[in-house]
Specification:
Blueprint lengths: L16 E6 L7 H4 L4 H18 L5 E6 L7 E2 L4 E3 L8 E3 L13 H12 L5 E5 L4 H7 L4 E6 L18 H14 L2 H5 L3 H6 L5 H10 L5 E9 L6 E8 L1
Helix pairs in contact: 4-8
Length: 241
């Protein structure tokens, strides 16, 4: 005889989420850089590896999350990004061919789409800002992919875009530790004001990932922690079970 367990049914297990963290310098695209430098070759290699590891879980949907979006914005088929502001006539379809009337996506989503193209991902793509990530992680079935695109501090050296701030390296180091450890809580509690002061454009995106995966068991790998041009470039991948 089978006896039913007492109490409410156990909640469904959360969907598995694979995350690739990549920065979004325009030089990531080889047409912008022209002649490749060793630093950007290493950056592209690290990003490609992180994205391949994300896709190894075979997600049907990849959410590209990054800054530069209006609240509630969502991008998809027909939308486009371009790199004309950086001296090259390059157009990137965010999710398949560009269509008349398609919206223009920010740089983070443009480069995120390019990374997915380079990796051969042909599934569904959704682009959102940090405020739109949590609901998708909660509601979409797994396995789900998240490509989190954002830079570290742009104040790492005297020649950096924002000049030197002594707090920049420690801030990026704290992010690197959280990424390496799979510490979602540490990302979720990054200091937004410090991130803004240090021109760490990835801060809202990192916080959103941390909040969306709070309390989950995470396997993590840090691929790159560097600042060759005075801007922190952090590349990692997570799998949240």
């Amino acid at each position: 005889m089978t006896i039913a367990a007492e109490g409410p049914p156990a909640p469904d297990a959360p969907a598995t989420v694979a995350v690739a963290f990549c920065p979004s310098p325009p030089l990531l695209h080889p047409d912008v850089e022209g002649r490749s430098a060793p630093e950007t070759v290493e950056l592209r290699r690290a990003c490609a590896e992180a994205v391949v590891r994300l896709l190894s879980l075979r997600p049907e949907v990849v959410v590209v999350v990054g800054g530069g979006t209006a609240s509630g914005a969502r991008f998809g088929p027909g939308d486009r990004g371009d790199l004309r502001g950086f001296g090259v006539d390059v157009v990137v379809g965010f999710a398949g061919p560009v269509r008349p009337g398609g919206r223009t996506v920010p740089l983070a989503h443009t480069l995120g789409a390019w990374l997915l193209d380079e990796a051969g991902f042909a599934g569904t793509r959704v682009g959102v800002g940090p405020d739109g990530l949590g609901g998708l992680v909660r509601d979409l079935p797994g396995p789900l992919g998240v490509l989190a695109v954002g830079d570290g501090s742009a104040r790492r050296t005297l020649k950096a875009p924002g000049y030197l701030d002594e707090g920049a390296a420690p801030f990026d180091a704290a992010v690197a530790r959280a990424l390496a450890a799979g510490d979602a809580a540490a990302l979720a509690h990054l200091d937004s004001c410090a991130g803004e002061r240090l021109l760490a454009a990835g801060t809202p995106t990192w916080r959103a990932v941390g909040e969306a995966l709070a309390g989950r068991e995470i396997a993590a790998r840090l691929h790159l922690d560097a600042a060759p041009f005075g801007v922190g470039y952090l590349v990692a991948d997570w799998v949240a079970a």
